[in-house]
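Quick one:
INPUT:
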């Protein structure tokens, strides 16, 4: 070492090349590697990029596996807590992981922070952030809606702000933008492993990270420095060839994949895009594709690191991260013979623009066949509202491509025939499109620029143009279109597509217009055909950051006071759930037998209910109010099996709880798909539920149920769903011997006194069984902390 110091001293006047050679000889570390180790994960963090550590872990795992690896495996397994001993078997083993960071949106952060407060820990163990984006209702326009939201939600915002300051969590104020865009612009990087309390967290896969949606209890684990558990996912490869062109956009890739895999085809798997076609997609376009991967049930989605990602990193002020990623490209790309469990191939050159819906995001309609399908199925052909933006499609490129369509239309003297709403994804995007004239162009088209927030995409829309129950059509560039999601009207037919097609369809005002082939009529009466949309991928003048909306936590937040008023109807401190009493669950009453699709929206509605996300008892009044009761085909009307009276689901559950009657729910396929909201698990637990028995679960919801001490069970024989009647009593037997992989005996007692037995499956491992016995994962955490 002394020799190295002398040499370095003596070479002071020589060139950088000489210094590089000296460093290589003396330290056996390349200068690029050394430089990468000093690069922070973000401008807000002190923690360095973890590439060196990840590479060392990957070496251990790769030696054990002895084969080529997918990108998903490289990133995931390099974050293993114990790479030398961790069992690794796709679809079977449970991985114990160490994520790099946690992100929470304001609707789910309330419950996550309330749970973290309950843990008694002084500060979070990993970089974490809160993003205020869900509580802003679209009414008039951006500024006025934001001001109104700040006033209405001041109690919640103050709680989140002070909780963040006290426990070391960064706070993005209302108006900052949508969580996923803020993450992409500031925190995502190739090779990142992040969990976020929102189902569209996979948006970060557009920058080569594994970003996974979870419930708040999972976030608490990671913030508490507990290894995060995930069932080892399978890997679905999507090989892209050709190039995007014309009206086909990145959104059409995921709309096509959704049509192939359906809403449950990605469950338990990571979707990994690769192939030569990847390079024809912008970084933000890749994010769009990964974002909507949530709609096929995928654990997450990811793209390999490439020049498009590097360009985006540099454009958002992260040159050092782009350079570091280039140094570790082997970690951030799949091996040549990477093994996929399923392989899909899509030729981008022949891919047609799609419009998916209504009522489900996997009903794929090529634009050339949409009009025909609408007439066949009696979908309203006249469009009432067009909406672009959201976390899925609100990039500078998206807005620019829409503006190119609008400019051409305005040149012919025509504007949107219908109301046209624009949601910028972030303050940075809003400020940049304002500076570059894009926002004004969209206003001249007839557009209303809304606040930088989720807005109508999640039901935060004070819609006035139709009455509830009125059949109508809207087209959006959003990601989800379940019944009643956007406007609480079950008769609204929502179609999801690219922002470019939303803009074109808004010009025509009809579903049967195809901009690829059809003409419009200008103000002068002459026919014209729209040109292919185009725009700069990134702003030539760079991004305008707009207003500073970030609040960094203080170095010491121990003296910060976090108040939750006992009289508040928005916030409520949590009481621990009761422990399992060690006995079988016998004669459970069936609260509701759900028929058909039951998303987390059906279990815990959003929209106006979002304001109660921090108050478990109040929000429980929305439990199952939009789920279809198999007994009568109605919504929010079930029979109280004790009194014989019919009433709302939440009120019936409360009546059971008051009388000490434990209950269960029976459901259909892919139960709990959609949002990551853990309230869909917390509410049944709070109101006395003990088990959820279904044909199959969506991943996040199944985990959320486990975390809250409920038993998530599936029929060993799916047809046994039909054996159960709403008037039956259910007994779950042999629970003292509950073990991983061991079926649960279920006795069905019919109203006539006859009984029959069926088998139920579960995916609980030993740790998750301990959550059930303790009453919840949080209860178990406290037991461990107290030495039990």
């Amino acid at each position: 070492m002394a020799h190295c110091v002398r040499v370095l001293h003596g070479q002071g006047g020589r060139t950088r090349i000489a210094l590089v050679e000296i460093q290589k000889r003396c330290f056996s570390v390349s200068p690029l590697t050394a430089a990468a180790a000093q690069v922070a994960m973000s401008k807000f963090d002190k923690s360095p990029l973890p590439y060196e550590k990840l590479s060392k872990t990957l070496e251990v795992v790769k030696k054990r596996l002895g084969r080529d690896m997918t990108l998903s495996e490289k990133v995931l397994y390099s974050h293993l807590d114990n790479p030398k001993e961790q069992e690794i078997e796709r679809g079977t083993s449970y991985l114990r992981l160490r994520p790099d960071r946690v992100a929470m949106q304001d609707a789910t952060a309330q419950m996550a922070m309330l749970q973290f407060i309950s843990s008694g820990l002084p500060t979070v163990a990993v970089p974490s952030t809160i993003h205020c984006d869900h509580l802003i209702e679209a009414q008039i326009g951006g500024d006025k809606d934001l001001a109104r939201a700040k006033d209405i939600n001041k109690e919640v915002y103050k709680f989140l702000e002070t909780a963040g300051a006290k426990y070391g969590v960064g706070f993005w104020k209302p108006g900052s933008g949508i969580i996923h865009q803020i993450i992409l612009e500031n925190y995502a990087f190739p090779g990142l492993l992040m969990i976020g309390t929102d189902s569209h967290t996979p948006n970060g896969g557009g920058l080569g990270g594994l970003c996974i949606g979870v419930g708040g209890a999972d976030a608490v684990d990671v913030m508490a420095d507990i290894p995060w558990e995930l069932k080892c996912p399978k890997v679905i490869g999507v090989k892209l060839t050709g190039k995007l062109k014309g009206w086909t956009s990145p959104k059409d890739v995921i709309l096509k994949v959704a049509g192939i895999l359906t809403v449950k085809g990605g469950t338990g798997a990571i979707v990994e895009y690769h192939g030569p076609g990847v390079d024809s997609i912008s970084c933000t376009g890749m994010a769009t594709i990964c974002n909507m991967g949530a709609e096929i049930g995928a654990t997450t989605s990811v793209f390999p690191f490439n020049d498009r990602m590097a360009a985006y990193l540099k454009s958002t002020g992260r040159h050092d991260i782009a350079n570091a990623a280039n140094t570790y490209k082997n970690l951030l790309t799949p091996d040549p013979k990477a093994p996929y469990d399923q392989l899909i191939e899509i030729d981008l050159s022949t891919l047609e623009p799609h419009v998916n819906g209504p009522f489900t995001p996997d009903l794929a309609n090529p634009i050339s066949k949409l009009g025909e399908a609408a007439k066949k199925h009696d979908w309203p052909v006249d469009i009432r509202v067009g909406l672009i933006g959201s976390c899925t499609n609100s990039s500078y490129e998206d807005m620019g491509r829409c503006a190119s369509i609008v400019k051409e239309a305005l040149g012919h003297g025509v504007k949107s025939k219908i109301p046209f709403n624009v949601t910028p994804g972030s303050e940075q995007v809003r400020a940049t499109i304002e500076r570059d004239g894009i926002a004004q162009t969209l206003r001249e088209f007839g557009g209303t620029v809304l606040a930088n927030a989720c807005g109508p995409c999640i039901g935060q829309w004070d819609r006035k143009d139709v009455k509830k129950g009125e059949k109508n059509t809207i087209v959006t560039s959003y990601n989800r279109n379940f019944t009643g999601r956007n406007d609480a009207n079950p008769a609204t037919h929502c179609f999801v597509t690219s922002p470019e097609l939303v803009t074109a369809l808004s010009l025509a005002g009809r579903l049967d217009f195809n901009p690829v082939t059809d003409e419009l009529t200008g103000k002068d009466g002459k026919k014209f055909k729209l040109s292919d949309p185009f725009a700069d991928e990134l702003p030539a003048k760079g991004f305008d950051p707009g207003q500073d909306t970030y609040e960094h936590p203080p170095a010491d937040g121990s003296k910060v006071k976090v108040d939750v008023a006992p009289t508040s109807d928005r916030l409520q401190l949590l009481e621990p759930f009761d422990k399992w009493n060690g006995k079988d669950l016998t004669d459970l009453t069936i609260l509701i037998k759900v028929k058909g699709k039951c998303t987390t929206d059906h279990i815990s509605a959003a929209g106006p209910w979002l304001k109660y996300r921090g108050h478990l008892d109040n929000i429980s009044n929305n439990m199952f109010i939009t789920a279809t009761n198999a007994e009568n085909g109605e919504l929010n009307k079930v029979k109280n099996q004790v009194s014989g009276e019919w009433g709302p689901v939440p009120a019936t559950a409360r009546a059971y709880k008051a009388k000490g009657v434990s209950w269960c729910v029976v459901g259909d396929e892919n139960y709990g798909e959609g949002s990551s909201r853990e309230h869909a698990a917390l509410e049944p637990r709070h109101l006395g539920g003990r088990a959820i028995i279904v044909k199959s679960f969506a991943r996040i919801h199944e985990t959320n149920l486990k975390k809250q001490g409920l038993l998530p069970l599936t029929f060993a024989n799916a047809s046994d769903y039909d054996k159960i009647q709403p008037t039956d009593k259910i007994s779950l037997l042999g629970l003292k011997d509950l073990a991983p992989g061991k079926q649960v005996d279920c006795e069905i007692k019919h109203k006539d006194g006859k009984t029959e037995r069926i088998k139920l499956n579960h995916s609980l491992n030993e740790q998750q069984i301990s959550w059930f016995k303790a009453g919840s994962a949080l209860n178990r955490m406290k037991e461990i902390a107290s030495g039990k």
